[in-house]
Amino acid sequence: GRSSCVDAFFKQCSYGAAGLGSGFQIYPSVLDICEPGFDICEPYKNGLHHKVTAKLTSLGVDVSAYSMFYYYLPDLISPGMPGYVGGNCERGGFAAGSYNNGGWIYDFAYLPSLDHPNVNQGPYMYTAVHEIGHLAGLYHANRVARGVGGVNNVELEYADHTSVQGHGNDTTCYNAPELWRLGWAEPIMDLNGASLKQPVQVTLPKQASGKRSILRVTADWAPASAASYYGPPTFFVSFRAAEGDYDRLLPLVHVQRLDGDKTPYLQFTRLNASLHAGG
Question: N or C: which end of the chain has fewer CB within 10 A?
Answer without folding.
Answer: C
